[in-house]
Amino acid sequence: MRTLITSDKRKGTTANTMFLLWCGDVLPKVCIFVPRLVSGTGRGFGSAPQQKRTTRTMENKIDIDEMLRREWRELGVYYETDNETKEWKIFGDRKGIENLGTIIKEYCDKTGSSQISEHVHLGPYSYLKIMTWDSPFITTDVIAGTIDDLKKLSGLIKEKLRNAKTGDSFTIDKEFGDNNEAKITINVMTDNFDPVTMDEQLRL
User: Fold this and answer.
1) Half-sphere exposure of 99 (CA within 13 A, CB side)
2) Are strands 143-145 and 137-138 parallel, antiparallel or unpaired?
3) Which of these, 193, 79, 94, 178, lies nearest to 126 by C-alpha position?
4) What is the rounded CA–CA span in Å between residue 98 and residue 106?
5) What confidence tens digit (pLDDT) does each residue in 39-60 have?
6) What are the residue boundaries of the structural domains of the chain, listed by start?
7) What distance in Å separates the CA atoms of residue 53 and residue 31, rounded to the nearest whole number?
8) Taking Cα atoms as reference points, which of 191, 134, 147 lies closest to residue 167?
9) pLDDT less than 50: residues of the chain
10) d(CA 2, CA 118)
11) CB 101: neighbour CB atoms within 10 A?
12) Which of 71, 138, 170, 183 has the highest CB neighbour count under 10 A?
């Protein structure tokens, strides 16, 4: 696991710190989505026929799409960030939201998770990052805090879910951390909600 190369500490985290984390963990994964951008027109190197190249590209796209669908369903919720309202918007049925709380708790219980900057990415695109830090905060890049803070977050998700009905939404903000730059809004969907249905890329 990489260690952050920075001596700058503050409540929250710095843009440079987040950029380093992003480059180290998200950027290498971008390559798996390159087949989405291949048009299939023209010939590449060698003498492979155009039709065979196009077929292979489509097969690769189908394989990647199936992988993304599987990862959304394993997570159980769909999420997105809204930079205007500064919030994480999470959508899931009761089972999926409960699962999200459990995943965060499992991260807290994992050996090594207490190390500063240790983290886990959730979902197929790895945008949602849960990270260990010395104080709790939420931004549109990361949700972070000590192990006790993150256990508290898991408990808040499950507690607020118990008091919510289908169609309700609830937020987590200052009860998690005073230095938040964003909040979490969780929307309780109908039973058997499929998070894949909200991913526009998978509807193409």
Assistant:
1) 17
2) antiparallel
3) 79
4) 12
5) 344 434 344 445 545 555 666 6
6) 15-30+71-203
7) 19
8) 191
9) 1-22, 26-49, 52
10) 8
11) 19
12) 138
Hunting for tokens 């205007």 — which residue is that?
Answer: 84
Name the token pair of 183: 């909040």
Please count the residues of the chain: 204
